[in-house]
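To close the chapter, one final illustration. This time we ask the reader to focus less on the individual chains and more on the assembly as a whole: which components sit near each other, and how the overall shape emerges from the parts.
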Amino acid sequence: MNVHPVLINGVWNVSTGAQSFHAVNPQTRAALARRFPVSPWEEIERAVQAAARAAELTRDWPGARFARFLERYATRIEGRAAELVAAAHEETALPAEGRLAKAELPRTVNQLRQAAAAALDGSWANPVIDTAANIRSMLAPIGPVCVFGPNNFPFAFNSIAGGDFAAAVAAGNPVIAKGHSSHPETTRLFAVEADAAARETELPPGFVQLLYRTDHADGERLVAHRLIGATGYTGAREAGLRLKAAADHAGKPIYLELSSINPVFVLPGALAERSAALADEFAASCLMGAGQFCTNPGLVVVPAGAAAEAFFELVRNRFESAPVAALLGEGVLRNLERGVESLRAAGAEAATGAAAAAGSGYCYRNTLLRVSGERFLAVPAALQAEAFGNCSLFVFARDSAQMRQIAQALEGNLTGAIYSATTGGDDAAYAEIAPELRQHVGRLLNDKMPTGVAVSPAMNHGGPFPATGHPGFTAVGIPAAQRRFAMLQCYDSVRPHRLPPALQNQNPTGTMWRQIDGRWTQGHAG
Amino acid sequence: MNVHPVLINGVWNVSTGAQSFHAVNPQTRAALARRFPVSPWEEIERAVQAAARAAELTRDWPGARFARFLERYATRIEGRAAELVAAAHEETALPAEGRLAKAELPRTVNQLRQAAAAALDGSWANPVIDTAANIRSMLAPIGPVCVFGPNNFPFAFNSIAGGDFAAAVAAGNPVIAKGHSSHPETTRLFAVEADAAARETELPPGFVQLLYRTDHADGERLVAHRLIGATGYTGAREAGLRLKAAADHAGKPIYLELSSINPVFVLPGALAERSAALADEFAASCLMGAGQFCTNPGLVVVPAGAAAEAFFELVRNRFESAPVAALLGEGVLRNLERGVESLRAAGAEAATGAAAAAGSGYCYRNTLLRVSGERFLAVPAALQAEAFGNCSLFVFARDSAQMRQIAQALEGNLTGAIYSATTGGDDAAYAEIAPELRQHVGRLLNDKMPTGVAVSPAMNHGGPFPATGHPGFTAVGIPAAQRRFAMLQCYDSVRPHRLPPALQNQNPTGTMWRQIDGRWTQGHAG
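The assembled structure is written out below.
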């Protein structure tokens, strides 16, 4: 049996592990032929040692060197786009053209190029200079970063090509990628290109490494390793919390993106004004990619009454007439089934769906549930458990005061949206609800569904626990996302020629933004 | 028996707890008469509820309101300086004039005023505006902050007057202060003034609250409370790690400053050039405040040989002739005794001290230990355990290569210093050692002892675990210290009149620094 090798210390090694696994085509439930290894601890340890050696060699490098790698890698990915799309489509069932080729691949390449530009520019490191005290500080690489990628974005959040990878590298850190088991061939293709780009741009071996899979205990050991700087994890809550406990205990930063139901509040004036358009917009957002988005709108709060009932009917019709896409895998289907069952057990009624769909793939009918505001407030924890997939729960609230209570009862979420009348007629209700919602979400939207996550310096793809592990950081947005993978380094009365270029009096690039004596400037100090 | 009341929800309440405690005069070991309560859980819960209500009321307030409070409070502290100094001197034995009145009180008041200026200015919140995408984000209050103060800075790190308090309030958060049990009367005096200043400047009740003591289990419950935003803790490692585990499990940010031995490397050229001056400088830094500084130089690495032996003798003479000051309390004395014993058990030899000192107070002889580089590298963990107090360990390293290995073997520390020849003769050794030391410390110093911690925007009073819990944050330095107590809030397509002033197109103050479309500016957007 042919098992693909792992990428450790710049070499594609046959794994020393005895176990292997294969991916499954979600549209046919057929096992895919290629086999990939489960790495044993000694193999993981070798990767960590190689990453630490790479970090030693590169930690003082100028950002331009990491930028060159990221640029070259982006170009290589474009050159292999057709194969990547084919592999990812086979492994995830996500639409090849509209989603993978036309949206996610360009986004991924764009992220890498934005990260390259930020690495080159250097302003991400926030250099601060106090000339009177001769104290200077900046962010610097934190050390080898482990990236655990999720199942739902085989490109844009891939452990060896996605947002965390780009951010960690742009901050100057080697990456040990732990691929998601559902799309190993996609990940392998990326790793081949990353490795080639690393050679072409003369990064040391061990800067970019790939493990396909580890057992849980070894994953916990990895994130807590003395030589690891930090970890980025995107995925299921339970596995993420196990890694968090291990990393926290060892005092190692870990950034998690765990789960989120992304509440949407629709106020009466918006319903009166544009119900049909809202129903279109909501159904498109909720069913896109079979609902498998971190920012999928899984909870909709509406004002009980005839208008909301009519709106709900419009959405139900759209859910029933929309095609059903295959889910990413059997585990996603099982979790969605369990999730819907437990929402129903907590008092939600199914208006449509709530059962497996016909066909050969891992399909679940588009599902719409409903519950009263009273019931939601009686068991808020049970009714905001995430049912990841093409499913949403409508809450019919008595009035804006109850909407406010619902906002107060929310756990931490990535996003929260409020739709209101364009005329201003809902402004009083908005003022009642928004301040509560604001505290429980990382990104507040107006009249917009949460599923688009622009790669903007102002973006926050983050939020209070349990959406993430820390409400001060974002996983999307350059340069903010880079700052997760950095340590603060201060130089107190250090002789000028020993300072890193970013902290010397002369601006090293002529364009780097630095805070000098309380003012942001692209100029020189002193 | 008269037990002092606690400050909860704007009222000085008699504690409902049955237990109480008293402080001890460290110079006489005599119990002080005043008694202070141990707060039971229901009392703590009331404080949390009151803080949450205060947070709801104040979270959208302009920074000017918090600035007014901080300014007023600073002025009130100055008005009560004599009483504060007398109380702190009695409770801590720190020198009344030179330390408390002339150094620590002015520093405390200065910190509060810097925090006030930062709150008023608003730039600390890092507003970022992307006008093309209409996405805007900034840091905002995280919610009620618990502050656990340490024993060694009764003013500058006091739970209700020190750096964490100032930073949390300047970021717009209510504070629940948990005073240190060794100086409750000092803390009470601060709380009286904080409460008065809060009333004068119309902060809501519950914004500033004080508990003197809780049991360990309740402390863990407090930092993990659903309504708590974050915690700042400065103190002993063991207690801090218990709180960290509880907060981490609940997904609540906790910032810890735990322990640090602050290694100092002295290179051959510096020894040859200025041994006597270095001995003066080192002894003054190490014995100041009986060595009870977070940044006390507890480890000195020298190149083995005649010059280092002569230097060691100079230091030993200074340690023997310097007066012995009382330690902060019985616990500090016991820990220092145990710490020195365990360093000796690991192979360190005592050159002087290493025993309790005569007299009525909690005094320990100024203690100097020594060990070879080989031995240090054989048991690095045991030989870098903190012995908090007037004690330091010299490591005699074979050569600069061994100095480098010692730097590599260090745990995370707040600071690391390197002394080298002014002529540049040590530059090769510096280049060998500094990159390793750099990774293990928050602040790297040249030719300077670490005990001075300037309140500068460029300061880093932080470092890798176990010095702190996260290497990206600093506990000293405005505005960086404020950012620990904030969540990132993003506004995506939010209507202009609903945005917080800092994110509207018009610059709300005309001087606030904002990043608009990639450029830092004090101007308007759009």
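The first strand of chain B starts at residue 6 and ends at 8. Chain B has a mean pLDDT of 97. With these observations in hand, you are ready for the problems at the end of the chapter.
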